[in-house]
Write a structure and sequence with these properties.
Its EC number is 2.7.1.24. It is an enzyme of class 2 (transferase). This protein is α/β, with parallel strands linked by helices. The protein has two domains: about 120 residues, P-loop containing nucleotide triphosphate hydrolases (Rossmann fold); about 70 residues, 3-Layer(aba) Sandwich (Rossmann fold), CATH 3.40.50. The protein is about 50% helix and about 15% strand. The protein has a five-stranded parallel sheet with strand order 2-3-1-4-5, sandwiched between helices. Helix 1 packs across helix 9 and helix 6 crosses helix 7. It is globular. It starts with 6 loop residues before the first strand and ends in a 5-residue tail after the last helix.
Length: about 200
Amino acid sequence: MPKTMTKTIGITGGIASGKSTVTNYLRQKGFQVIDADAVVHELQAKGGKLYDILVDFYGNKILAPDGQLDRQALSEQFFSDDTVRAQVSALQNTIIRQELLARRDALLQKHEVVFMDIPLLFELDYQSQLDQVWLVYLDPAQQLNRLMKRNNYSEEQARKRIATQLSLDEKRHLADRIIDNSGDLSMTYELVDDLLEEVCHVEK
């Protein structure tokens, strides 16, 4: 890859829209991808910066017998009350943002292009920290069906989780580039290849 200025590209989409499909492909291509969900899980692990915050807020009812977070219990508590969810999110988001940007800056010391997979990218205003945003788009009806199937949710449970994010159509108007994941995987990969060629100067 020719020497260029460093570039940070955000990857986002709705829940179950296929972000991991795209980011796994980018990793196969040799790119560095910061996975915000994975970073959050690290921070929420016992001894992590977010663990005590969550336990102080919710109590032991979100803990598994081994003392780690019971993610199913945490999810149920988190999505049970909009006001509570907003309070918990505010407590976590500052720490998460600091960690994500620190990891980005460290990677940019060695790599010219770094991707950041951030599900709530627009909702939390990360776009100001990025050079471009790529949206993994899926037809909303497909998104609902995939989420129900993937997580064994009822339609009501799936709709409730989708409703906590901006809609895919709203995100579509905010993104710089669109990766339509509604068709075959080969079509998705071809769209990613086109974007890599355009933005990162990587040939297919």
